[in-house]
Write a structure and sequence with these properties.
The protein is 3% helix and 43% strand. The chain has 145 residues and is mostly beta strands. Strands 3, 4, 7, 8, 9 and 10 form a six-stranded antiparallel β-sheet that branches. Strands 5-6-11 form a three-stranded antiparallel β-sheet, with no helix packed on it. The relative contact order is 0.18.
């Protein structure tokens, strides 16, 4: 099926904003547009609980689920082990969907040095990068606001 992504970052639309999508088809033209709904109407929208996971060279790019931190709204964490090379590259995925990747603004960025981007499908080739001793555990914390 087709997916729609309404990206409101340029207009500083808050995450979780509910939109009414309008489709108009006539014999002369087809039109699609969207607009935010009122908070009252937005409360009637279906609530969806996302989940998050890590993917990286440490897991052969397979999803490793993050655990929700119960007492912190929107907080997630996970751990992976650095391999024999002493380095690891990774991204985060929302809903185990590579079209919803969370990645750094630059390739091979250390998690604290570059802003995160996404979730979207524009993270190809952009991975967070960590180094350490082989066998070291890396703990990843994600806070969704």
């Amino acid at each position: 099926g087709k997916k729609w992504l309404v990206d409101g970052r340029d207009r500083e639309v808050k995450a979780g904003t509910v939109f009414h999508i309008h489709f108009r088809w006539t014999t002369e033209r087809m039109e699609v547009y969207w607009e935010p709904v009122s908070q009252l109407s937005g409360g009637l929208a279906i609530k969806y609980e996302h989940n998050y996971s890590l993917i990286g060279d440490f897991s052969k790019w397979k999803c490793v689920p993050l655990a929700r931190l119960g007492d912190h709204d929107g907080a997630w964490e996970g751990t992976f082990r650095i391999g024999a090379s002493g380095r690891a590259e990774f991204q985060l995925l929302r809903d185990a969907d590579r079209q919803q990747a969370i990645y750094p603004s630059q390739h091979r960025a250390k998690p604290s040095t570059a802003p995160a981007r996404g979730p979207d499908d524009m993270g190809k080739g952009k991975h967070f990068f960590v180094t350490g001793r082989p066998g070291d555990d890396v703990q990843v914390h994600l806070t969704v606001v």
